């Protein structure tokens, strides 16, 4: 049972509780990447080369700890570890799809705003 110190119990609203699980620079991107099926750690590293190995490990462990990601270790040489979304993690698919659609719809506008801001600086 979670403690009262857990961010989900300390949240003031459901959005804050949700962000305590999926917040973080890379967590939603990892959920997005894992939506198509299990991936090895090395695949995640190749897909997101800008994430350090330490941060990737930390983000995956946190997602695993919150029940979003399942980590499967195979007894092989060399060792193989796959990461996949749990059913709980799959419940985030509509959230990720909505964010993806929002980004596609507003992407050009955001890009233009950033260009304008850079020119003004």
From TrEMBL:
Coiled coil: none
Name of the molecule in the record: Transcriptional regulator, HxlR family
HTH hxlR-type domain sequence ranges: 13-111
Gene3D superfamilies hit by this protein: Winged helix-like DNA-binding domain superfamily/Winged helix DNA-binding domain
Organism of origin: uncultured Sphingomonadaceae bacterium
A Gene Ontology molecular function term of the record: DNA binding
Keyword Transcription regulation assigned: yes
Biological process according to GO: regulation of DNA-templated transcription
Keywords attached to this entry: DNA-binding, Transcription, Transcription regulation
Database matches in InterPro entries: ArsR-like_HTH, HTH_HxlR, WH-like_DNA-bd_sf, WH_DNA-bd_sf
Domain of life, source organism: Bacteria
